[in-house]
Write a structure and sequence with these properties.
With 356 residues, the protein is of the alpha/beta class. It has one domain: Rossmann fold, CATH 3.40.50.1110. 35% of the residues lie in helices and 13% in strands. It contains 11 helices and 11 strands. It has a 5-stranded parallel sheet, sandwiched between helices. It has a two-stranded antiparallel sheet with strand order 1-2. Strands 3-4 form a two-stranded antiparallel sheet. Helix 3 runs parallel beside helix 8 and helix 4 crosses helix 8. The radius of gyration is 21 Å and the shape is globular. It starts with 13 loop residues before the first strand and ends in a 24-residue tail after the last helix.
Length: 356
Amino acid sequence: MRLFAGVALMPRYVTGGDDGIRRNIPNSVYSQTSREVDIEIRVNSQGLRADRDFRVQKPDGVCRIAVLGDSFFMGYEVDIEHSFSHFLEENLREAGQPCEVLNFSVSGFGTAEYVVSMESRVLPFDPDLVIFELHQTDLRENVISNLFSLEDGTLTRTGNNYLPAIAVRDKLMQYGIYKWLIEHSQLYSVIREHAGKTVKQLLLAKNNIKNYLSSPSDSSQGHDSEPEPRNTPEDLLFALLEKGKQLSTNNNAEFLLIDIPNGFDPPNYYSVLDLEMKDYNLAANFNLVSPMAVFTHPENAQEKYYYQTGHLHMSIEGNRVVAQVASDAIISKSLLAYKGEGNEAVSPPHQVSVED
């Protein structure tokens, strides 16, 4: 494998949370390597990618941003100082708006898991701004997880948990040889990735078939016509985004949606905004920003925004650009304006920096 078909080593240290979804293993430290990177992932005792713990109760005068995403916002394939969250915190501090940026991202998450995380993990930290990642894989992940369904246009929690292979992984993680394999064995990495993709395809097919069979048929089409699915993955994604925004608003926090384009064939980037979700007008319903204009600008044709020999995560420059687009939007839209009594925007109080 190493001589003729070397592959990236991208271990994922995840376990199950009390809320029925995955979380990063607390206090874990592990490496990710490819022909382009050799980095270290560090997770604090709260399951966040950070070098310190955060007080749950927000101190007076402190501004907080909660970031929810998958491995892109988790910062896979980059060190923590080159991650989106770190660049965002840096940019806002330099702009005179210091904030604590808490990274709740977990590899493999979809929008459904962001919503569950908000209710169980994020809101106790009292964020002033909640950021959701938007990526094309969300359409698939939301169906696979089967955490929510649409019933007559209403988003409903199914009551199911989504902890794929977590029980087996937790047992294996007790053995040092397994930890060595996931960080050093290229053969194991190939087998694991293939198995993971196969299981996801089976779950996707199962849940799609279930939704299809439960869909009411349209009597006007005749008995021989095939019934249309009751709800589409696009409808579900839109409803989940609305739920995330509603939870933010109800807890006196702003909401920001950040598009992450696909980087499979740079510079031919493409986004869910231009394909599956183009008719949903997300920009009119959410504070939506995208780095696409920067990624596709002719002057940036030679820039490498995604690593190509690993798992196609954003490079240092990719994380930097997305953070710059996000911080510009936060400042221009005044998304961190302090809310006084009656939920009216007033001049912000003294902001305490991370150093303070």
